[in-house]
Amino acid sequence: MIGRVLVVDDEKALVLALKGLLKKEGYQVEVAYSGEEAIEKIEPGAFHLIVTDLSLGGVSGMDVLAYAREVDPDVAVVMITAYGSEKIAVEAMKLGASDYIPKPFDNDEIRVVVRKVMETALLRRDHQRLLQQVQEAYGFEQIVGNSRPMQRIFSMIEKVADADVTVLVRGPSGTGKELVANAVHYRSPRRRRAMVKMNCAALSQELVESELFGHEKGAFTGAVARREGKFEAANGGTLFLDEVGDMPLETQAKLLRAIQEREFERVGGNQSIQVDVRLIAATNQDLEAGVKAGTFREDLYYRLKVVEVVLPALVERREDIPLLIDCFLKSAAERFGRDPKPLTGDALRAAMAHSWPGNVRELKSAVEQALLLSGGDEITSSDLLGSGSAGDGVELGTIVVGDQPSTFREAKERTVEHFERSFLEGALRRSGGNITRAAEAVGMYRQSFQQKMRELGITADQAMNGEQKGV
Ligand SMILES: Nc1ncnc2c1ncn2[C@@H]1O[C@H](COP(=O)(O)OP(=O)(O)OP(=O)(O)O)[C@@H](O)[C@H]1O
Ligand SMILES: [Mg+2]
């Protein structure tokens, strides 16, 4: 990692000499010719080290030190002091300076001090990042699932994690796209470097670009200081672009270039910045439709979908539901400090039959709420799905899809059949098994009602007993 240094002095010649010297040492060097200028340039994460003269005219080196400590507690400061001002130098060290260099100094002295201080500064940042990663890894949620589609996803994650290729994670909302992205990063050789996340939705083009690529001071109204973008922050690690399908078209071109050339410019800047970043993108949008409609660039589309991981909706892997419920119950119980409660058989059946339009996220919050709200020793279907599901009401939102991928027509037929069955059975239950009254109540001719019952193989007795078939 290259260290970034800010050199501050009001003697122009000295600044340029130091700049040349430190650049030769391999650092990235910026300069400021006054304390005021330095303060404008200092912001969190902008520099690893500031080398400042103590006396600068207006804002002094001590002020710069105090400001830097406040804005960016991680930045190291080395003070250049006039001959004989050791006392102030000690004062500076007390205020948090890492070291001082008395004038006159020779180049070797500078080299040695800067190298030593920089090493410590970089180590400290690494250390902090590692700590954060350990925490993340500790809290890194297990992806739960045993169904065939999920097994396929697990083996895909294992395969692509190492490969450093761009991964596009797709699937409806709440299906675990972010979990998959995390898993890819934490199983990749980049796991010890940062994983930086960015949501591309609901931001203006200007904001998305400045978030992605950073901006120079004055690039636009409100850009009061230079700012590093997510691409830079992710250097050496992984950049997760969430909701990439919502990225403004103009920004897509810049993203494509950053991916292809591995370089970009900050907004309002002309210096090109090189980065080494692995990209993971996620979307629940139909990108193919976006390409057709001209809202998503085709070339970017192909760049992103080098490897595609497609998460199926929860109804397409119903067999995972019991396992998911079990896991969510355990973790919720732990979190809320309660004992886990079992589900009644009815509740489990209802959960298996439910359509879960919000997918795993919805299931998770339903389980958490049920645990909190349930009064008895067991979680009932009304605890889990609300009272509507326990009674005779017809659940209109149910979509019935089998384990195998199905065509739209098959899925629709099965869904309609499911709807008709529960509708008729509900009507029969409410009429106490009286077909004439059931038909009347739902505005059907008795003959058509009976005809439908025959088609679906429903008998009045079976409907009364609440048996569910075909789910
Ligand atoms: N297979 C799974 N195992 C355990 N938890 C899961 C699983 N899938 C999803 N979750 C949980 O469901 C919630 C939603 O997951 P996540 O944020 O990854 O979904 P998403 O696909 O990114 O959704 P969106 O499109 O809305 O952003 C999270 O709390 C996540 O922990
Ligand atoms: Mg998400």
Fold and architecture overview:
This protein has 471 residues and is of the alpha/beta class. 48% of the residues lie in helices and 13% in strands. The chain has 20 helices and 14 strands. The strands form four sheets. Strands 2-1-3-4-5 form a five-stranded parallel β-sheet, sandwiched between helices. It has a five-stranded parallel β-sheet with strand order 7-10-13-6-14. It is elongated. Residues 177-178, 242, 282 line the site of magnesium ion. The site of magnesium ion (MG) has 4 residues, from helix 7.
Summarize the entry for a quick read.
The protein has 471 residues and is α/β, with parallel strands linked by helices. The protein is 48% helix and 13% strand. It folds into four domains: 4-134, Rossmann fold (3-Layer(aba) Sandwich), CATH 3.40.50.2300; 152-310, Rossmann fold (3-Layer(aba) Sandwich); 314-389, Helicase, Ruva Protein, domain 3 (Orthogonal Bundle), CATH 1.10.8; 408-464, Arc Repressor Mutant, subunit A (Orthogonal Bundle), CATH 1.10.10.
Layout of SSEs?
Blueprint: E1 4-8, H1 12-24, E2 28-32, H2 35-41, E3 49-53, H3 61-71, E4 76-81, H4 86-94, E5 99-102, H5 107-138, H6 148-161, E6 167-170, H7 177-186, E7 195-199, H8 205-213, E8 214-215, E9 227-228, H9 230-233, E10 238-242, H10 249-261, E11 263-265, E12 272-274, E13 278-283, H11 287-293, H12 298-304, E14 307-310, H13 321-336, H14 345-353, H15 359-373, H16 381-385, H17 408-430, H18 435-441, H19 446-456, H20 460-464
Parallel strand pairs: 1-2, 1-3, 3-4, 4-5, 6-13, 6-14, 7-10, 10-13
Antiparallel strand pairs: 8-9, 11-12
Helix pairs in contact: 2-3, 6-7, 13-15, 17-18, 17-19, 18-19
The structure holds adenosine-5'-triphosphate (ATP) and magnesium ion.
